[in-house]
Amino acid sequence: MIRLEKVTKRFNQGTPDETEVFSCFDFSVNSGEFVSVIGSNGSGKTTLLNLICGSLFPDSGKIYLNGADITPLPEYKRAKKISRVFQDPKAGTCPHMTILENMALADHKNKRFGLGICVNKKRTAFYRELLSVCGMGLENRMETPVGSLSGGQRQALALVIANMCESELLILDEHTAALDPKSSETIMGLTDRIVREKKITTLMVTHNLNHALRYGHRLVMFHEGQNVFDRSGEEKEKTSLDEILNIFNGISIEKGC
Amino acid sequence: MAAFLSTLEVVLEDGFVYAILAMGYYLSYKILDFPDLSVEGTVLSGGVIFSLLVSRQVNPWLAMLAALVFGGFAGSITGILHVKLKIRPLLCGILVSTALISINLVMAVAGQGGDISGEGLSTVSIGRDAPTILRSFPFDLIPYQAGGVNLRKLVGFLLVAVVVKVLIDLYLKTKSGMLLRATGDNEKFVCMLAKDPGNSKILGLAIGNAAAALAGSLIAQSRGNANQSMGLGMVIIGLASLIIGISVLGKIRFLKPTTMVIAGAVIYQACLGVAALLGVPSAYNKLIMAALFTAALVASGRFGNRKGALV
Ligand SMILES: Nc1ncnc2c1ncn2[C@@H]1O[C@H](COP(=O)(O)OP(=O)(O)OP(=O)(O)O)[C@@H](O)[C@H]1O
Ligand SMILES: [Mg+2]
């Protein structure tokens, strides 16, 4: 489905701040797989997602989507097949537009944005239904500008919006990190439901080890731009929280932190 | 009293015309957050193109359309410089308006049969026999004068401004228009919709400058000619009208931003009109404009955030 081949990514090349996040990095996700990615801060998780989505381009190496080389493709073209929820709740919606307007825009994804009227009131009932699943009462606030919602509410909306249209790959970057524990569980449950129903290939970054264990077919741990732990299927089912914690701590101790 | 009436007449006429320019600015500056300096050139282009065409007896509506299309073209160049060549917004506007200084002069001189390297008229006059929109259907149905007021001009310009307002309002409800708003609001979101935000920006600047050129063609009709200094101060007039309208009326919820902008343009012209009534020589006009604009900026900063009145 998605494959990174010998990808190298450096920031601030040629300055004293130069950091090499990935060096000759290989990674792949199979079609239909739900992968949870964990790893310490700065280990390169967001950078990986940015490389896949085209927000960043590798210094060398290739990126393939369904066997096609997408390395030079700009972000907006890749978005035809990829939907994404960002780590930053502000990134996934338009703050000065209402919930209804945001959803109406998303409803037209992958279609022409011509001179037809954008908001179709007949679709409102359908939008409300999608929102009611979040259990945050958003369905009763269709005319509210999104900028006046809380971070968690915005993130829930962003998740719903990202899944309004068919796509082949779903990218989630700590999409529950900004939510309170209850909403976080709700959104995680919603995510799992969407992924199962649509059978969409999913790459989810999370700092919640419980979620990483509970959801998904495959668990990957990153450390300093390397894939240090990778289990899937039954092997992953058998993995316990303690085991993960031990590995996590082991890495940190090794590095003397 | 007569002085007051004739000032009021000029205030309204100019207010309606500059409202069109300011509504263009609403798209480029307010929605796209792009301070577009190219209108300094496109207003004059619109005036020159219109005047040249109607002097050759071209239908004035067609002539206005030609001005509009040229403005849109120039605006899209500004957009392309920014989006494709990554040049900063202010510089893009300076580049395009500078290039237009030559283009407008060449059009004016050559269009009147002059010699570009020698003698030639740089001002394009609209002769008495040339068709303007006020001299043709449907405006020729309105009485030319009523009670000492040039009624036809007043109503004519108001109607054009209202049509532009309605079209912009409608456009902003379309998918393309909503995408434009989204581009100003969150480019990442537009990317996620699999659309290139750059295209929206180019389109928005094209519309903004098309409106500027349209305003230019009306200014030429109002004055009876297109003169090479016509473009001076257009950035200030457009921006100040926009910002005055939105900061003064922004709190009134049921008003559309475009309505506020029309009101802002009239208020701005009214300030200049009052200065004229008080006997301030017109040489001070640009100074007053700059002062008014500063006041409007301070007021808008104090009473509302930049996009507060957007929805
Ligand atoms: N735009 C950038 N410019 C410079 N350095 C960057 C940039 N983006 C990321 N980095 C660096 O790359 C490294 C990896 O960052 P990344 O955001 O991928 O981490 P992460 O695994 O997502 O961390 P977190 O869990 O905190 O979100 C960090 O050292 C970071 O400083
Ligand atoms: Mg991150």
Secondary structure elements and pairings:
The complex is a heterodimer of chains A (257) and B (311).
Chain A: E1 2-11, E2 19-29, E3 34-39, H1 45-53, E4 60-65, E5 68-69, H2 75-78, E6 82-85, H3 99-107, H4 124-132, H5 151-162, E7 169-173, H6 181-198, E8 201-205, H7 209-214, E9 218-223, E10 226-232, H8 233-238, H9 241-254
Parallel strand pairs in A: 3-8, 3-9, 6-7, 7-8
Antiparallel strand pairs in A: 1-2, 1-4, 4-5, 9-10
Chain B: H1 2-31, H2 39-55, H3 60-83, H4 89-111, E1 124-125, H5 151-173, H6 175-185, H7 187-192, H8 197-223, E2 225-226, H9 234-249, H10 257-277, H11 285-303
Antiparallel strand pairs in B: 1-2
The complex binds adenosine-5'-triphosphate (ATP) and magnesium ion (MG).
Spans where pLDDT lies below 50 across 5 or more residues of chain A: none
| CATH top-level class of chain A | Alpha Beta
Q: CATH superfamily of chain A, please?
A: P-loop containing nucleotide triphosphate hydrolases
Number of helices of chain A: 9
Quote the CATH topology of chain B. ABC transporter involved in vitamin B12 uptake, BtuC
Q: How many DSSP-defined strands of chain B? A: 2
Helix content of chain B: 55-70%
- Name the CATH superfamily assignment of chain B: ABC transporter involved in vitamin B12 uptake, BtuC
For the termini of chain B, the CA-CA separation is: 41 Å
User: Whole-number radius of gyration of chain B?
Assistant: 19 Å
CATH topology category name of chain A: Rossmann fold
Instruction: Return the average pLDDT of chain B rounded to an integer.
Output: 89
| Rg over C-alpha atoms of chain A, rounded to the nearest angstrom | 19 Å
The hetero molecules present are: adenosine-5'-triphosphate, magnesium ion
- Quaternary structure: heterodimer
